[in-house]
Design a protein that fits this description.
The structure is a homodimer. Chain A is α+β, with helices and mostly antiparallel strands. Chain A is built from 7 helices and 6 strands. The structure holds a DNA duplex (25 and 25 nucleotides).
DNA sequence: GTCACTGCAAAGTGTTTGCATCGCG
DNA sequence: CGCGATGCAAACACTTTGCAGTGAC
């Protein structure tokens, strides 16, 4: 999806298309992958735009509720956000330096889990798969 | 492992066996599964023991570092802790009521991922697999 | 013009830290 | 009795909330 398409989507679901929302979406498009609210704040500032954390959080929450953004609680009490549906992937995360490496395999799809979970009367919407350990560099130190 | 064995393990790795540590371990043994620091605090209080959050956090951190306890960052900025190695399982989590249901299947083991990840020069130590959605009751509401 | 949204400040929640005292080994 | 552990208070980091003013439609 392009920026304009995201903008249109927002209006379609009855949200006002404010300058701040455009900037947040632009920043997420221009910087693929997951970012903390802090990182998004910095990226917004780099575009010479002033914005408060509350605006960022409120909009990330809104975008998450509308499935435009995905919220990941990967590391100790810090949420990461990324545009949803652009690509589906999981992570290998270094316990020492915090580096996150994407992996393409998805055990959920490969093992046909969706049907199994539905048979438990559970309606799955999304899933998370993460492997922790030490990356190449950190394991050598 | 029994309580006494956990106590011994602590001494073996050079930690003092304080009353507070015994209580935390006892509480974790008596209440299998994952708990927040808050829940552990309440469980400790129910045993008529007074303990500060700092003591709980410091010890959970210590036990986590020594792989006696596993720390899970599952939900929005709240860590959950549980005794490690008692049983290996993953979770199905309801987005509405927060209920966590254990599932026994492990995609990591079933797909022989350990070797694949090692071939990336990454040393895996643990992993997390979670499926989010709506549980039976919440999806009916 | 209306109402959703933002700026700003202040509070809230979960967690960590500093320091004096305590108690395990 | 020495040093690691705890009690307690205070700080911290991330996030949410309340309210008045602003701007999209």
């Amino acid at each position: 999806m392009t920026g304009t398409e995201f903008y249109k989507h927002l209006k379609d679901i009855g949200c006002k298309l404010t300058e701040q929302r455009k900037i947040i979406i632009d920043v997420l498009i221009e910087n693929p992958g997951h970012h903390t609210a802090e990182e998004i704040f910095t990226l917004v500032k780099n575009k010479n735009s002033k914005m408060y954390f509350s605006t960022i959080y409120r909009n990330l929450e809104l975008l998450t509720n509308h499935k435009i953004v995905e919220k990941l609680s990967i590391v100790d009490g810090v949420n990461h956000y990324e545009l949803n549906g652009l690509d589906h992937h999981h992570h290998v995360i270094c316990n020492k330096c915090g580096q996150m490496i994407q992996i393409d395999m998805c055990p959920y799809i490969e093992n046909h889990l969706a049907e199994k979970i539905k048979s438990m009367n559970f309606r799955p919407t999304n899933h998370k798969f993460e492997i922790y350990g030490l990356c190449d560099r950190c394991s050598k130190e």
